């Protein structure tokens, strides 16, 4: 049975692979090599010609190069492997480097290919595979790569689709996945401040039994870890296989690593929009690890995904801050124009102004002036039961009812604050105001807004009325401002009385400069 691998997978293999691919249409042979083979054989291209392969074989096979002149047709071991012959040669050299070459067949993108695997002769994985005669070690490495590829693609799609509030959770899951994949005992993300002279630990995963340090690593300044900061800024990378070998200039870092029993550590910088924003790192605790190129590549990949997620989180935060500012600015605008932003009614500011104006007018024209204070009953429990948004809807419904009920010229309805409304009825005497208030309660009941906690099962209103009679300005000591203030206070006291008397009723009083008398009308 042949294994199936993708081009991308072969690219990531730590083993040098040269493989032959036949173009389906023309049956032309093409030979490719992966980056590990390029590094090993110092090749500067990913595709090789027959001449390249011959030249390579001549360099590697001493026997071949000696005999070349006399026996021109000696088999070329790389070509043999690429032709599908069983090859297992350990006598090859590349410069001073003893090489091991072995043939393997597998399929890439559904096409069978023959490959030559090339590794330094002491490469553990390769030797094990060669000695036991099976490729399970190499397959394991491929499976490992495949599993990590899968993990990365899952992580990136989860992070790309994450809502702002889920991003932290997904970053933590990504770190946990890396750790559980066996990369480290502790995986973490640190973020830089705007001036790049301070870092803080924002996310952390630790293996069971390993201590967490997120809480204490919150404000680490450049002067605390100068060598590390310089490394991150200049190289974007810090790879320490063995903390004990750190040089004297990294003494602060060594002290910190020792205090956490870190024996090996690797950190990779994260960038967003060309700007350094932080780093992602792995620690080995109480044991050492030689970080492979694959480990570093993997960490870089995860770092890139996390950096993108952090950047989109920043954008979302900035967006919601701008939205909040807009809403506040809008509310201030409403305030300035005298309008309540939720209901569209006049606001308290406009009401105070109108009350003063109307009081002067009624004194001047010897006309009565009635003021109604209207409050929604048990509105707190309405909010608690049906939610604040339904509460807002109910407030708007009541506002619309008031607006349509008090629509005579000169009548003014305002949202006094919260769930309380005030209505000015210029020219209305007490009995007219009471009658109008009574009708309002009937219309409110007809709306039929359910409120389980109310006695009637419906949302209702309580109304307190104070009426300034037409002759209230006769007293020369009475000023419009004082009378307006008293009218407001006495309407409020009447409302309080209506609440006390069971709600869903109207209580009224005639303006008394010194005392308040109530008539129960409903
Ligand atoms: N949904 C919503 N609720 C508001 C708004 N303004 C004030 N409220 C709520 O109105 C409720 C008023 O509660 P209380 O003053 O305790 O009075 P109540 O529950 O209506 O009781 P009584 O007045 O005694 O019948 C509070 O829960 C406020 O949160 C608003 O703009 N929207």
List its traits:
binds guanosine-5'-triphosphate; 44% helix; elongated; disordered C terminus; Beta-Lactamase; alpha+beta; 3 domains; six-stranded antiparallel beta sheet; 522 residues; Alpha-Beta Plaits
* CATH class category of the largest domain: Alpha Beta
Question: What's the helix count?
Answer: 16
Q: What's the average pLDDT?
A: 85
User: Into which percentage range does the β-strand content fall?
Assistant: 15-25%
The radius of gyration over CA amounts to 41 Å
Low-pLDDT residue spans: 514-522
Number of strands: 19
Major sheet size, sense and barrel closure: 7 strands, mixed
Structure class? alpha+beta
Q: How many distinct folded domains?
A: 3
CATH architecture of the largest domain: 2-Layer Sandwich
Which ions, cofactors or small ligands are bound in this entry?
A: guanosine-5'-triphosphate
Helix content: 40-55%
CATH topology title of the largest domain: Alpha-Beta Plaits
Task: Write a structural description.
Strands 1, 2, 3, 4, 5, 6 and 7 form a seven-stranded mixed sheet that branches. This protein has a six-stranded antiparallel sheet with strand order 10-9-8-13-12-11, sandwiched between helices. A six-stranded mixed sheet has the order 15-16-14-17-18-19, sandwiched between helices. It has 16 helices and 19 strands. It folds into three domains: 4-134, Beta-Lactamase (2-Layer Sandwich); 149-316, GAF domain (Beta-Lactamase), CATH 3.30.450; 348-520, Alpha-Beta Plaits (2-Layer Sandwich). It is of the alpha+beta class and 522 residues long. Helix 7 (136-161) packs antiparallel against helix 8 (167-180), helix 8 runs antiparallel to helix 11 (293-336) and helix 12 (348-365) packs across helix 16 (480-500). It is elongated and about 130 Å long. It is 44% helix and 24% strand. The termini are far apart. Mean pLDDT is 85; it is low at 514-522. Residues 342, 375-381, 383, 388, 391-392, 395, 418-419, 499, 503 line the site of guanosine-5'-triphosphate (GTP).
């Amino acid at each position: 049975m042949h294994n199936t691998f993708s081009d991308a997978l072969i690219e990531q293999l730590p083993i040098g692979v040269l493989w032959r691919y036949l173009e389906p249409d023309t049956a032309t042979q093409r030979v490719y090599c992966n980056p590990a083979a390029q590094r090993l054989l110092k090749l500067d291209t990913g595709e090789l010609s027959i001449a390249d392969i011959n030249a390579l074989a001549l360099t590697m096979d001493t026997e071949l190069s000696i005999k070349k002149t006399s026996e021109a047709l000696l088999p070329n071991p790389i070509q043999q492997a690429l032709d599908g012959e069983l090859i297992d040669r350990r006598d090859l050299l590349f410069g001073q480097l003893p090489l091991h070459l072995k043939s393997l067949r597998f399929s890439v993108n559904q096409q069978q290919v023959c490959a030559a695997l090339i590794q330094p002769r002491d490469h553990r994985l390769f030797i094990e595979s060669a000695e036991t005669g099976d490729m399970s070690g190499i397959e394991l490495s491929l499976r490992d790569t495949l599993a990590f590829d899968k993990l990365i693609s899952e992580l990136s799609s989860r992070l790309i689709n994450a809502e702002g509030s889920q991003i932290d959770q997904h970053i933590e899951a990504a770190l946990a996945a890396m750790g559980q994949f066996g990369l480290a005992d502790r995986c973490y993300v640190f973020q830089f401040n705007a001036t790049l002279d301070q870092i803080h630990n924002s996310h952390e995963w630790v293996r069971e039994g390993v201590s967490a340090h997120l809480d204490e690593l919150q404000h680490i300044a450049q002067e605390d870890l100068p060598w590390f900061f310089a490394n991150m800024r200049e190289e974007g990378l810090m790879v320490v296989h063995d903390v004990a070998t750190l040089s004297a200039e990294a003494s602060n870092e060594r002290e910190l690593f020792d205090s956490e029993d870190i024996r090996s550590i690797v950190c990779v910088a994260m960038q967003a929009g060309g700007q350094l924003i932080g780093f992602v790192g792995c620690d080995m605790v109480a044991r050492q690890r030689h970080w492979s190129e694959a480990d570093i590549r993997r960490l870089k990949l995860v770092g890139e995904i996390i950096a993108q997620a952090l950047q989109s989180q920043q954008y979302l935060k900035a967006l919601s801050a701008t939205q909040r500012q807009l809403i506040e600015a809008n509310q201030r605008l409403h305030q300035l124009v005298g309008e309540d932003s939720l209901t569209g009614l006049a606001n308290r500011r406009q009401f105070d102004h109108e009350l003063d104006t109307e009081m002067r007018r009624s004194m001047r024209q010897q006309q009565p002036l009635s003021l109604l204070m209207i409050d929604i009953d048990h509105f707190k429990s309405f909010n608690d039961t049906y939610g604040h948004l339904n509460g807002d809807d109910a407030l708007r419904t009541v506002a619309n009812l008031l607006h349509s009920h008090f629509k005579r010229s000169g009548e003014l309805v305002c949202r006094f604050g919260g769930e309380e409304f005030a209505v000015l009825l210029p020219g209305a005497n007490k009995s007219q105001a009471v009658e109008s208030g009574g009708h309002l309660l009937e219309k409110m009941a007809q709306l039929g807004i359910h409120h389980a906690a109310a006695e009637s099962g419906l949302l209702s209103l309580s109304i307190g009325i104070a009426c300034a009679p037409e002759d209230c300005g006769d007293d020369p000591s009475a000023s419009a401002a004082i009378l307006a203030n008293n009218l407001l206070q006495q309407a409020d006291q009447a409302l309080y009385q209506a609440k006390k008397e069971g709600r869903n009723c109207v209580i009224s009083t005639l303006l008394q400069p010194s005392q308040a008398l109530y008539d129960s009308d409903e």
